Amino acid sequence: MKKMFSLCFLICLYCSAYAQHSGVTFKSSDPALETAFVRAKEMALSYKGKPGDPVGPWYESALPPRSAFCMRDVAHQSLGAEALGLNKENKNMFRLFVKGISASKDWCSYWEINHFGKPAVEDYRNDKEFWYNLNANFDIITASWKLYLWTGDEEYIKGADFVNFQEKSVSDYIDSWVLQVDSLLSRPTHPNAAVPFNEQDAFHRCRGLPSYTEGLPNIKMGVDLVAALYRGLSSYAEILEVKGQHQKAKLYRKKALAYQKSIDAFWWNDSASRYHTFYTSDHKFGMDEGETFLLWFDALKEGERKEKTIQRLLSRDWNVENLSYFPLIMYQNGQVEKAYGYMLHLTDPATKRREYPEVSFGVVKGFVEGLMGLEADARINQISTLYRGKSDSRSELRDVPVLNTLITVKHDGNKKTTLINNGKKKILWQAKFVNDQGKIVIKESVWVQPKTTKEVSGI
Prior knowledge:
By secondary structure, this protein is α+β, with helices and mostly antiparallel strands. The chain has helices at 2-20, 31-45, 71-83, 87-99, 136-151, 155-158, 160-176, 202-205, 223-242, 246-266, 291-296, 304-314, 320-323, 326-332, 336-346, 357-371, and strands spanning 25-28, 68-70, 112-114, 124-126, 129-130, 132-133, 207-209, 219-222, 268-269, 274-275, 278-280, 285-286, 375-377, 382-386, 394-402, 405-412, 416-421, 427-434, 440-442, 446-448, 452-457.
């Protein structure tokens, strides 16, 4: 009898421990969404690094065979990873990126780091010969800012290595790579070229690519880099505000705005009703990939041009790297049905290359920030919610780690939202709803104490 009791006790203890560590879960009146979330979560977590890897905690965020993580992918995947409980992984990888910046690399960091904690050989030979996309520094600044807002961890904005990375990126880096707003179309194609320069060597030709679009010859500037500069400097201004440096914040906000203005001033093609995406060394504009990042960096003003950009993105097929951004940006831009379709498509086993790490993490972001509309602001210890699902559907996101607590959000269409604070820290909650006319209704913020439940009625 004692043995049976002991066995039952151990089983209960194991089940309890598993329940406490099973992480974020999703339930819905829509079974297809439930399946999509399970697939995305399982695949994303399968990329978690192994205990004992020399690099420390990490997750795959590059081409899977490399066992590595690159700056662009990590910046994109980081908030999805945070929702999945990969906070130690995020902190370690971001620390490595910001520590990697150096004068010998003209204030670049390491584009890609492998599980040994070394610059990936696929992208790095030495400090004068390596692959690097110039968007990366500004993407990391913005991602660090977003991680601070989500977690409240001030190291992301005030830690010595992070501050050094920010300061060098918004000054010396811009100077070294001739990225001043009035130099974007006149800068040298290869400002810091190796001597002798070998055009056929990718580590010469791509040491400072001015775009995330990598297959274009003679590219002098990409519109996505202009957007990255705008968002990175805007994020830096917000960081300065938190630190009380208001005059300096005002200066960088003004600098950021100049980059945004330049997009509309120089990059719009009236006859094609779309933005050019690159400018070449022979002084010609062209159109290729890149428009996705105009939305990712939120660099477009509301209006006809932004709407046409969205419709163009929806009008054609893209590779999965590009599509991995679509669930979130389409939910955020009012394309609810399209976003829903991308969530199901990107988790469909028949979708080619869905195993690329950005895909599953992008879908998780689509659920957390997109469908469920969960945002955080550590400056005022507030979370906000906005359900973007169907008005007659129900969805629940349980045990989301945010602002040093665990929350559960339940949306009953646009009628009611319930928030459960499962953690040990009180949080301020602002519920938002989409009314029957498609307008967002913002409710008064309420405090939710630990271990308590609050409900807010919608329309």
